Amino acid sequence: MVDIESHRIVDMIKSRDFKEVVKWLQGYPNLSVVTRDGSLTYKNAITKSHPNALQVSGRFHILKNLTSYCTDYLKKQLKNKVIADEILILKSKDNSTTNIKNYTIKQKYELINEQIELGVKGSTACKAISSRFKGL
């Protein structure tokens, strides 16, 4: 428990057991605002011991939950929105095939420049290289 004005630790509870949390909270009859995590045990214990107290989520939990919800939302929305172009076959000066799995960034950059020199648009060459590296 932290004092909201002084930001000093007032006390620490030794258990998450509902009955013990209620008993512990009742030792602080002047509570009017309680910041907590998403624990239902804490929610119910606060409601039982201080039914008129305002319960709010802590900043950490608000940001954590917001980040999780946004990530999940974007994954769901973008998963179905990204449309892959046909896999583009890269031109090769000597018509050979190479295992680009182990290429360095510099080698990838050089490969894109080779494509541009062979007349492939830069964006097309980048997409082609990227599509070949997915999942590697």
Architecture overview:
There is one protein chain. With 136 residues, the chain is mainly alpha-helical. The chain has 2 domains: 18-78, no CATH class; 84-136, no CATH class. Helix content is 48%, strand content 6%. It is built from 5 helices and 2 strands, in the order H-E-H-E-H-H-H. The protein has helices at residues 18-26, 40-49, 59-79, 105-117, 122-133, and strands at 33-36, 54-57. The longest helix is centred in the middle third of the chain and has 21 residues, at 59-79. The protein is rod-shaped.
Strand/helix succession: HEHEHHH
Envelope shape? rod-shaped
Distance between the termini: 48 Å
How much is the average pLDDT?
80
Rg of Cα set:
29 Å
- Helix/strand-derived category reads mainly alpha
Total tally of structural domains: 2
Strand content: 5-15%
In the sheet with the most strands, the strands line up as: 1-2
Number of strands: 2
Largest sheet: 2 strands, parallel
How many helical elements? 5
- List low-pLDDT spans: 84-89
Question: What is the helix content?
Answer: 40-55%
